[in-house]
Structure formats: structure tokens, C-alpha cells
Amino acid sequence: MKNIISFLVVVFISNAAISQALEVCSDCEISTLKEAIRQAKDFDTIIVKKGTYKEYDVIINKPLTIIGEDYPVIDGEFKGEIITVISDNVTLDGLFIKNVGTSYTEDYAAVRVRESKNFVIQNLVLEKLFFGIYIEKSRDGKVFHNKIIGDAVEEYNSGNGIQLWYSKNIQIEHNFIQHVRDGIYLEFSDGCTIKNNVSALNVRYGLHFMFSNDDIYEDNTFENNGAGVAVMFSKRIKMYNNIFKENWGTASYGLLLKEINDAEIVGNTFADNTIGINVEGTNRINYKHNTFKNNGWAIKVKGACYKNIFTENNFLYNSFDIAYNSKVNDNEFNRNYWSNYTGYDLDKDGVGDVPYRPVKLFSYIVNRTPETIILLRSMFIDIIDFSEKVSPIFTPDNLLDDHPQIKKILW
Amino acid sequence: MRSRWSYVYFAFYLLLGVVLLFLNNDLSKAVITLMNVIIVLVPLIGTIFGVMYYYNSKEFTELLLAQPLKRSSIFLGQYLGVALSLSMSLILGLGLPFVFYGLFESSAIWDFSLLLITGTFLTLIFTALAFNIALSNENKIKGFGYAILLWLFLAIIYDGLFLMTLVMFDDYPLDKLSLIGTMLNPIDLSRTLILLKLDISALLGYTGAVFKQFFGTNFGLIVSFIMLTIWIILPVLRILFKAKKKDF
After folding, report:
1. Range of B129's domain?
2. Which listed residue, of A149, A165, A339, B126, carries a Cα 20 to 30 Å from A319's Cα?
């Protein structure tokens, strides 16, 4: 027993000797974060007490753990960037950072991480910001449980919630992002995981990939953004179990795919979007177990899409299931459930005996003359759709689901 | 005569409601199917029934005219008798199965009430139009012919012509034209009203500012209801006017 106690004491003392804790509060010896960082040694912990600290351009140049107690406010007074991390192994926890400067020439961020490894940024609250968390040329970091509330109105003078630039292996989880330009933006960033985030009411995209490969995003919710998620010029992106909803407007999509190869889109829900998925120039993508419900267009295919496979998806009450703008089709639709299917199943094997044609003549007409949308669900339209179904002239004639399911698919 | 046919009509809607729910097991899908029924069948039945009723009760009407009654109250009474009993059959016939199915716990209740309201409007409008046709044509066969033609025109042919116009002039800004075109046809108008609830996501995809204002706000709903009311008032006024002038 005595041994254990003495051991613990030794451990405690040596520990304290190695990493000492500095306290920052308005009437302490150290009253600013900058001063604390200057005095701190490597691997120290800085505890910031409750209060308001008017600071900007705080540069963290040594491996430190900075913990806020009861969310101390760091107010940048719109003067510029607030915290810049340029060292490895930095942890930021529990700070309330607000009033980041806006500039048209520099991307000021509430927290910028530059060329560092193994950082942890968690439990931050960011408000009145330009860019939120900006991670550049860094790797192996974690961004957890942050709340980012911007006040963006226009695209040109607002920044992104979390931005990754030339970074690798970053985990972004449980963040809540609202009212910024892009909720989460990845450019040239590979191997990142984006999980359980909520990104809503953003001016442009909820989540945006540019030239980023081998990333995975799952269990996120994208609601009411300019467009839910835009994945552009990227390879091997995995998209699992996300919810895309209520992205309404003339150029609004749940998911925008542009020049994407070898992606997996599995288990997602697209509900009440003007366009569920807008696809342009994509190859070899697997769509499986997705639910498309009450969208204007479930999937809009704009051309140059080859070898995409749609299996076992549910298409429920969409105004249009699939829209094509060409007569050529190289994509495969198989074993999906279509709520608009009107065929029968005489042999009772759960598969409709008549193939289903998801592309309607009317969607072709609407593509050409958008105003005709007002005739949607008119009886005349039903008649011409029926005649097109019998003998396809304007729509791709090999585009059909040979095994439409009779019952909604459960998985 | 009137009561017997409204029972048949009631039974028809009751059956339709039950079958739809039984086959679909899903309220939102049943609402979509019902929309087609309401937009196509309700005007047809209203028209035929109105014309039929007028011709059948013509002798009785002439008898009534000999009594010291105001002409306007005789014809208005007849019109309202037919139109309201049809509306009641529609509302009860479709309403009951849905209520038993658990409509009040469902989110589809607003869509469904909107369906019934537009159905009632359409009944009122098309019965009034039918009375107009019957009043202007002594010949029964001709009267029926015109009535069917009217329905065919408003339900199908109008949309065809409308679509052709839109496609032909697609180099011009068309959003105003398309909205006005919809306003001029009560069937299209009711369809648009229901679309505002069912397909709003698709409708908001179009760029035109006029469209956006119409669909994006309650403006569209209000304007459509006003237009539907006008569509009732005008034919009814013509019934009264015609009835006053007509020699029997």
C-alpha cells in the first residue's frame, strides 16, 4: 500500500514537473493567452478561466494543451485571424471564439492549423466568423464536437466552416455547422473521415469536395443548404448513411456529383430535395440501398456517365424518378422499388413481370421547356407518357429496370 | 331521383376510398391516386349529373314556374340542391374510409382536406356549367353532347393545346403565359393547387421570378382560391340571367 502511494506521489510530482499547468484569468498573474503561450514550456497545459479576452493573432508555436473552463470568450474584435497553430501535438478545448476579421485578400480564420501533426480541436464554439477552422498542409488531426454558427448571406464575402487544404487523415466528427458558405470544404485532402456532423442552412454547400480522394463521409445530416453535398473531381469517395433533405431552389441538389469515379453511395436518404442527385460525368459508381422520397427529381443525369449501377434503391413518390438529357444509356438499373410502377406480379416472386421505365417523356419535355412543369400530373401528360412508355422514341429505350420490386425494399 | 343518385355517387366514393386504402396501405400514395380521380372524375360526374337533373326535372320546373315563386330562387335552389348533395357525397364518401383508416393521426390530413376542398369547388363549378348548357339547349342530345365536349376540352384537350403553345414558343419568356393559362381552366387550377402541396420540391426547381413568387409563397394558394370562386360566381350569375330571360 505504502509503495503504491509513494509511487503515485512520484508519478504526480514528476508529471507536474514535466507538464506544468498555467492558469489564465483576467486578474491572475497571466491575463492574456499570448502571455501564457510565451511563458509555457513544451507540453504544458494552459487553463483559461471564464472571462473575455480581447486577443487576435495568437500564435501557438509549441506543443500545448489549451483548455477553456466554462467557455471563456476570445474576442478578435474583427481585427484578423484569432488563433494560429504552427506546432505539432496541440490540443484546443472548450473555447468560445468570436468576431473574426473579414478580408477580401486573406482568409482569416478563427482557428488555423498550419503544417502540423496530431492536433485535436474540440468543443469549440465559433461565432461571427469568416473562416471557422482552417487546416492547411497538416495531417493526423481530430476536429470533434465543435459548434460553428456563421452569419453568411452572400458567397463572395463569406468563408467556410471547416476547411481542409492539402491535409491528410483528418477526422471530423460530431460538429454542428450553420450559416456559413460551405459547411465543410475539402481541397486536395485525402483519407479524411467525416462523420455524424450536422450541416444546415449554409449559403453554398453543406459539404464540398474538390480534388480529394479516398475520403469517407457517413451518418451526416445536410439540411436546407444551397445544395447538400458537392463532390467534384474526386476519386473513391465513400458516402454512407447520410441524410440529405429540403435542399430547395433552382440550382439546389441533395448531392451534386461532377467528374467522380469509383464512388460508393450506400444507405443514404434523400428527402424533399428539388433534385436528389445531380450527376455529371461520373463513372463506375455504385448506388445501393438509398431511399429517394418526395424529391422533385430523384436523379438527374446530365451526360457522360458510364457504368453506374443502381441496385436495390427505393424511389418513393418523386415527381420524376430519373431524368436524362440524352438518348444514350450505359448505366444499369436493377432490382429497385419504384412507387410509380404500375405493373403486376403474376408468379408472386416479388419481382414485377413488366420492366419499369423510369424516364418519362414529360421529363424530357420539361428539360426542353421548363415552363411546362406547370402541367405536371395533368391527364394529357399521363396519356403522352403512356404512349411513350409503350414505344420509346425520345427517351433511351434500353433504360429500364428489368426486375422492379413489388414491395418496398427493407435492409 | 336526386337522392337515389347521390346515394349511388356516395357508394361509389366510399368503395373507391376503401379500395384505395386497402390496396395501397399508404396514405401518401393514396392521396396521389385520389388527386387523379378528383381532377378527372369529379368534373365529369358534376357535368353529366347537372345536365341530367335539369332535363329530367324540366316538367316539374315548369309546374313550379306557374306558382308565385321567384325564378331566381327556383333555379338557384335546383342548382344548389344538386351541387351540394354531390359535394356531400364526395366529402362523406371519401372522408369516412380515410377517417377510419386513421387520417387524424396522419400528416396527410392537410393534403387530404385540400383534395376535398378542391373537389367541392370543382363540383360547384361543373354543375353550374352544366346548368348553363342545359338552359341554353332545348334538345337533350345536343345538351349532353356539349356537356361531354366541355368536360373533354377542359380535362384533356386544353392541356394538349397549352403544352403545344408552350413548346412552340419556348424561345420567349413563358412563365407569365403559363400561369395565366392555368388560371383560365378550373381543372388546371385545382391541379396546381394540389401540386403546391404534393410536388412543391419539383416546382421550386424552375427559375422564373413569377413562378417563384407564385409557388414559393402563399400568394399562389390565395390567387388560386380567388380564381376558383370567380369560376363559380360567373356561371351562377349566367344561370340567373338566363333563367330570367328564358321563355318556357
Report:
1. 2-245
2. B126
